[in-house]
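Person: I keep going back and forth on a fold encoding question. Show me how you would write down a chain together with its backbone fold. Please set it down just below, with no commentary around it:
Helper:
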Amino acid sequence: MKTNLLQLPAIWQDFSIAAGIVGLSAILGFYAHQFAELMQASLFGDWGFL
């Protein structure tokens, strides 16, 4: 029972680290996409009338 209790946190730690990396990259990708669309919209908004 002690070995199971000692092994479980390590497994969950690896899983949470992996999930954190995936989640962080997904959030960064989403914000990068939103920022790119915002920049594109502002550029076309400025130059669209010329």
Helices lie at 2-47. The mean pLDDT is 81. The chain has one helix and no strands.
